[in-house]
Amino acid sequence: MTAKTHNGELTFSRSELMAVELSKRLRNDDVTVMGTASAIPQIACRLAQLTHAPDLYSIAGGTCSVNPHLGPVVPSCGDYDLLRADTSLSLNDVVLLEGRADVLTVFFAGGLQVDAYGNCNLVAVGDYAHPALRGPGTVGLPFLSRVGRVLIYTQSHNPRTFVERVDFLSGPGFLQGPAEWKASGLPGDGPQLVVTPLCTMGFDSETLRMRLETVHPGVDVEQVRAATGFDLIIPQSVPTTPEPSAEQLSLLRALDTHGLLKGK
Amino acid sequence: MTAKTHNGELTFSRSELMAVELSKRLRNDDVTVMGTASAIPQIACRLAQLTHAPDLYSIAGGTCSVNPHLGPVVPSCGDYDLLRADTSLSLNDVVLLEGRADVLTVFFAGGLQVDAYGNCNLVAVGDYAHPALRGPGTVGLPFLSRVGRVLIYTQSHNPRTFVERVDFLSGPGFLQGPAEWKASGLPGDGPQLVVTPLCTMGFDSETLRMRLETVHPGVDVEQVRAATGFDLIIPQSVPTTPEPSAEQLSLLRALDTHGLLKGK
Amino acid sequence: MTKVISLSEAVDRYVPNGVGLLTVGGMHLHNNPMALIREVIRQNRRITRLLTSPCGALNAELLIAAGLVDEIATSYVGFEHIGLAPSFRRSVESGSIKVLECDEAYITHGLYAGAGGLPFVALPKGIEFTDIPKVNSENYSFTTDPFTGETVPVGAPLKPDVALLHAYQADEHGNAVVAGAHFVDRYMALASKTVILQVEEIVPTDEISKHPQGTTIPGFLVHGVVEAPGGCYPTASHGAYNFDDQAIAEYIGMAKDDAGTKQYVKQFVTDLNEAQYLHNASERIEKLRYGRGPLAVALSERKA
Amino acid sequence: MTKVISLSEAVDRYVPNGVGLLTVGGMHLHNNPMALIREVIRQNRRITRLLTSPCGALNAELLIAAGLVDEIATSYVGFEHIGLAPSFRRSVESGSIKVLECDEAYITHGLYAGAGGLPFVALPKGIEFTDIPKVNSENYSFTTDPFTGETVPVGAPLKPDVALLHAYQADEHGNAVVAGAHFVDRYMALASKTVILQVEEIVPTDEISKHPQGTTIPGFLVHGVVEAPGGCYPTASHGAYNFDDQAIAEYIGMAKDDAGTKQYVKQFVTDLNEAQYLHNASERIEKLRYGRGPLAVALSERKA
Q: Whole-angstrom Cα distance, residue C254 to residue C265?
């Protein structure tokens, strides 16, 4: 069952597709944590709980509540409404767990820049001392290297965001590649997925560089290549990202009654 | 107004007198903390709040509640009833405050051994590796050196408790005397008072050794000297500890309806 | 002995001009102590160094917009889904403010160390693979782990001179209830030399002591209590009202350049006293009040 | 997926014989997870190293009385106003158990470090003036404070393999409510690889999630949940019943020597299953139930 209007337009937004794609990578035994501006991963986690991963735990990084009930999804990770949840941790507890590394299995991340090895930068574009663009700051991204799987999402897919090497490394991905990554002894599994409005990408197991996995409906491979500022690994055959099912969309929209993901 | 029965016996217990004496050393701007088996300091603090120090704060070191309402006083510092209080801290918070040093002004302490410089030992009597008496352990006594004034209380006054030098230093007093104390740079003011069933003692400002201050009603100076295992400084004139007033006893007993201090 | 004090007196007495390290409570668009911050701006107090929670928002941005901040220690200043913080961004890009670049874990653990008299805090492995310690040697360094012999990253303790915090309720002694998320506000209270609280409402002590386990800031840490209903606006006050995204967007719009920023500060802060500001905002605040969800009910039960 | 498990299965599955570092929750005579501890004794699990909260009581003493503990890391084992812990005392005096001498601050901060992956924790000045670090180089050491150049005392992180904890209520997933004091139990849960909870009562998730701010142990930290009403007896279960000073005094009386200690363990632990033990204790437990003070009311409101 696909989801198109009678004149053939897609009946879901790019953000809704991103949430569904993230949701599909979550497992029943995951414990996830998300931070700033996290409507998309919030919905991804709740959707996973309502479908294939009922036992998944998700932590809202601002309020630090566990399994917020999300009716509706709220835009801020610190929202009072997120406290309608199964349990409450303190921010201090969550920071401790992020450092412990063997408990939290998924960290949702993003950046002003994301590089070929999945390193993220939320601090500054250009020379740090005289930045062309000062970002807000890195919050908890340094913990990317400790928590199980890193799932990166960003609503910008262009050569300024996807760069060969971040100008400032504030969230470790595979660092400068296999040698440095292996030598680091960091406990996390590193970045596993990047979801953008154009495509989903993974990482090549040998080179640890980003590799195209699927292109979203209506997007072609050349478009992704042109929008990526580094030499993206592109397999011979690139499938199209499956469209969300009517059931997924219906569940998602029942959560997103404020329409935070709608039309974006 | 004194408090004697018609046949001249004292109408208060030694423990009640100790609580009153401790209470008198507390100030309106004090923030006190107490630990294990703390019925006497609990009552001392509440009595101070009800008389001359209404703004005093006291922290029950087990539950970590602030200003427990104490009706009645309970024997364990971890009692559920202590949570009837003005505010609640966590144990972690209290340990932090004990380390911060400029907030908590009074620490109630004790020991299996207390030495001439007010050092306390709650760990082991005799050789540490083969102790003659193994104590329970030191809990928070190492923080004596950080918190404002240390008030020591003990229900044993004998040469085994009051020794020249503790066998194991688990709660710092004035260490080995003025030179070491000064060099330590520790932020606390050190021990200020020792209250026992026989007397109250302070510390000589030059030598930092314990000095007799008052003997309790019915106790003479020689009795204290004989019960003390080190060379106690004894001034020429030693006043008798004032008897608790009828008002103090009445307030105290209204708190201590379980009679924890009665007859002891 | 009451610690209740007027807004202007609180800032006059407890926030010296040129204050060494000032920290402001709340996180993201929530529980920012805006009444106190607006008053700091009205009284034109220079801040040598400002420390935010792991995520600063209008609490830091407005002080920067008013040109009062020399240095900022932070891991984030922004408005989450609404946008970047224009004055922070412009001031850093132009070099008119110095950033002590931090990460969330360091701020959290650093306040813990500051609260507890810990000389420093050893940090989990990982931060040394980022560029953050490279640009902030004041807060980050390295030492030897004597148990393993390895070199490990460490952070300096954070000990603010003054903390400006919001709580839902307090009594006159400063015993305070935090409704909703605590963020790192309690650690700020534990670590700071002077703590000023603004609250939605001052209540009697016997009211507050009915629920001691919800009253987590003890009065002995607090120096002044200011009754400031609506005082977090336009950020949210957990338990009372939500943030106003329109008002934040309006700020972002005006603060696009220096002239607009100055105009905003004049129009919304320095030209008004707090009563006038709140009078103008009162209709919006009423619209933003939380409904009777489970948490609002739990809090109303507290008061019943 | 339910984590509810029987008492015997919980110990059988999660407490291996010779467990490396086992920690037991509760403090003083409160919230000792005695049902789990009695079962550890029935199943005769040797404990290589036992870690208490800053104040251990019957939780540590009974395991030592049963002869199961090789080493103990603690800052206190005793019965407060009731008396010393006879088996702990005798075992240390005779050298049959090794003590890793700790202080309260180290245990608290060490669990924090263990929970957060901190390589070690720098301790406030003071402990180096006691004899404690001199006799415990495994947990205490010294390193350089790179910010001041001074040598400072530090503690090793505490990372228990298994934690046995008590909570008031939990749902089948292990989301748990602690009624009353938390002591360091939540940090034990955060720092331990495996966590087994005993609770007075298992309740539905939608019951527990009505008051998320009182539910402070998240299920993802918990491996097994055992319903054990009365399971803290003869220690107190905050929210349910007080400790039994007579029963503790009876233990102290019997445990004066090895023969009496063995007799106690046989009579009160190994000769009975938990249901029989509780049947015998039930009258005392009923007498010790907390009255309807403010806290009991607050908890009954939770359930209403």
A: 10
Give B132-151 as a 3 state SS string. EEECCCCCCHHHHHCCCEEE
Would A263 be classed as within a structural domain? Answer: no
pLDDT digits (tens, 9 = 90+) for A58-113: 999 999 999 998 878 888 999 998 988 888 899 999 999 999 878 999 999 999 99
Residue D212 and residue A31: Cβ atoms within 8 Å? no
Q: In Å, how far from its chain's centre is CA D20?
A: 16
Cα-to-chain-centroid distance, residue D285: 20
Contact D190 A100 (CB under 8 A): yes
Nearest by CB to residue D105, choosing from B77, B98, B135, is B98
| Entry pTM | 0.96
Q: How far apart are CA B6 and CA B122, in angstroms?
A: 41
Contact C55, C198 (CB under 8 A): no
In chain D, the residue whose alpha carbon lies closest to the alpha carbon of A32 is D220
Helix (H) or strand (E) holding B152: strand B149-153
Residues 6+ apart with CB under 8 A from A220: none
Nearest CA in chain D to C302: D298
D262 residue type, one letter = K
What angle (nearest 5°) sits at the alpha carbon of residue D256, between those of residues D252 and D260?
Answer: 95
* Cα–Cα distance, B143 to B136 (Å, whole number): 17
Kindly list the residues from chain D whose CB atom is less than 8 angstroms away from the CB atom of residue C120.
Answer: 122, 145-147, 152
Residue C83 resides in a domain: yes
pLDDT tens-place string over residues C151-194: 999 999 999 999 999 999 999 999 999 888 999 999 999 999 99
> What range defines the domain where residue A171 resides?
2-255
Domain that holds residue D21: 7-102+159-303
- Asked if the structure places residue D152 within a domain, the reply is no
Question: Using CB atoms, which residue from A64, A123, A143 is nearest to C101?
Answer: A123
Q: How many residues in total does chain A contain?
A: 264
**C-alpha angle D10/D12/D18, rounded to 5°?**
120
- Rounded CA-CA distance A139/B72 in Å is 48
Question: Coil, strand, or helix at residue D239?
Answer: coil
Average pLDDT of the residues in A171-179 = 97
Task: Please give the Cα distance from A160 to A180 (Å, whole number).
Answer: 25
CA distances D155 to B138, B143, C209, Å, are 16, 15, 37
Chain C residues with CB under 8 Å of A33 CB are none
Q: Which helix (H) or strand (E) holds D225?
A: strand D224-227
Q: Does C286 map to a domain?
A: yes
Overall number of domains in chain D? 1
Alpha-helical regions (H) of C179-244 = 185-191, 205-208
Its sign, for the CA torsion C145, D192, D126, B91, is: positive
- Candidates D2, D3, D172, D220: best to mutate against A (most CBs of A within 10 A) is D220
| Pairwise CA distance, residues C197 & C223, whole Å | 8
Contact at CB, D183 and B81, closer than 8 angstroms: no
Domain of residue B149, CATH code: 3.40.1080.10
Question: For residues B128 and C301, what is the distance between their CA atoms, to the nearest angstrom?
Answer: 55
Q: Count CB neighbours of C240 within 10 A.
A: 26
Domain CATH code at residue D13: 3.40.1080.10
In this predicted complex, what is the ipTM?
A: 0.96
